[in-house]
Amino acid sequence: MEYLLNHHKGLKLIKIPEKANVTVLQPESMPVRETLSNMLDLALHNARFIAQLRKKNPSRIAIVIPDETQPVPLEALLSNIIQQLFHALPSITPPAVTIILGNGLQPPPNREMIDRILSSSMIRSCNIVAHVAHGARMKDFGITRRGTPVRINAAFGEADFKMVIGLIEPHQYFGFTGGAKEAVIGCGSADSIRHNHRLIQEEPAHRWHLGGHPMRKDLDEAGRMIGIDFAINVVLNTDKQVVRILAGEPEVVLEQGAETCAAVYGLELGKKFDIILASCAGYPKDISAYQAQKSFSLVSHAVKEGGKILLLVAFRKGFSEDVYFDYVCPFAEPEAVMKDFTNFGYTMGARKADLFGGMLVNYKASDFDDLDSEIMRHCHLRAADPSTIMEEWVDDFKGTPQVGVIPHAATTYFINSDDQ
Questions:
Q1: How far apart are CA 199 and CA 197, in angstroms?
Q2: Whole-number Å distance between alpha carbons of 63 and 156
Q3: Which of 22, 305, 336, 394 could covalently link to 331 via disulfide, CB atoms 3.0 to 4.6 Å apart?
């Protein structure tokens, strides 16, 4: 049996021996019924965007956008939005509009990356800022009830009208992305982001339910403290096409968009599998270990404990940050990483190492990627030809293995009795 799965910007053919019983776990195919322009115009009209702008009559406007790991059609969205801004507020000039690339704790994008994301001359005439969590000037908005300091990039925090553009998709911690996340996490200070993410250790987070996530509740509270005026969120289908655009108050937008997202990506899971073959769905979801771990987390809910997971990743950005590689390399096995993590102190790289460690302890995992096999070995990951691995795993299985193929591992989530 042969299966074509996305790998970076191409396809990879993988063979699975006939001995296996294979089930393809595919999200719902949702068609595009309107043009992007029509969807955006309707969403802005229903949310009374122009009326809100004119009522507030701002002199400084800030718009946060996601980094390149989120396949949002930013050029088309921003061009339309900025045109409407200038039409509604004739006194506003491009330098009064700041566009902030909200990349959280990730390294700030270089000029080449910014050019890829924002190439329109009209957009480039605005003030463009790449967020730096460790060095940007911040504005302090206080502390949430869960103790998170709300410190946000001043380019956003000091604006008179604050907007976020984002993507709603399943997330291992927050239930779903979107809403205030691009501002609170994308433009937050390092201590703000780390404190919010520490909440995953203090309280259980219930998957796929917005109301049950302590991190999500904390994030939404921070968003209210910042005073985000307007959110524009999109939901994509499995072909990365926009199927819905929502606009308005961040939490309302998130709740409505999460319903659509759940209809697209949520799958009822009747059984768990012995072996999982999965793709992150290609670029940009497979460009780093940071992104790949999210896919590992999602697909782990579909495999039996002690089962096997083969994930296709590209790792074109390696491990995203040096702290991951530097932290994990001295340990001979993932169990040692997990044991040490509680004493190390929370950092994103170390947390990713801990999460990977949990996967490697509970499941036999392997990756197909472009990194040197020796580098992978130091990180307790195995890199090999996927067809060879599948043949090995299936042939070694006693009886008929149940194999699940997940073409969109970065966004597919599984609903079973534990999630109800």
A1: 5
A2: 7
A3: 336
Residue partners of 362: CB distance under 8 A and separation at least 6? 300, 305, 306
Compute the distance between CA of residue 126 and CA of residue 381 in angstroms, rounded to an integer: 43
Residue-level pLDDT at 417? 44
User: Burial code of 97-130, b = ≥16 C-beta within 10 A, e = fewer?
Assistant: bbbbbbbbbbebbeeebbeebbeeeebeebebbb
Which residues are registered as beta bridge partners of 175?
171
- What are the E-state strand segments in 206-320? 230-236, 242-248, 266-268, 273-279, 303-312
Pull the structure tokens for residue 1: 């049996």
Return phi, psi of residue 122, to 5°: -65, -40
**Beta carbons of 265 and 170 less than 8 angstroms apart:** yes
Q: What average pLDDT does range 285-300 have in this prediction? A: 78
Residue with the two structure tokens 């996340």: 181
Burial category of 268 from C-beta neighbours within 10 Å (exposed 0-12, middle 13-18, buried 19 and up): exposed
Contact 173, 200 (CB under 8 A): yes
Contact status, residue 181 vs residue 210, Cβ threshold 8 Å: no
Helices (H), 144-227: 154-157, 181-184, 190-202, 214-226
Provide the residue type at 1 as one letter. M
Length of the chain as a residue count: 420
CA–CA separation, 109 and 132 (whole Å): 9
Q: Are residues 282 and 45 in contact, defined by beta-carbon separation less than 8 angstroms? A: no
For residue range 232-282, list pLDDT tens digits in order: 999 999 888 999 999 999 999 999 998 888 888 888 888 899 999 999 888
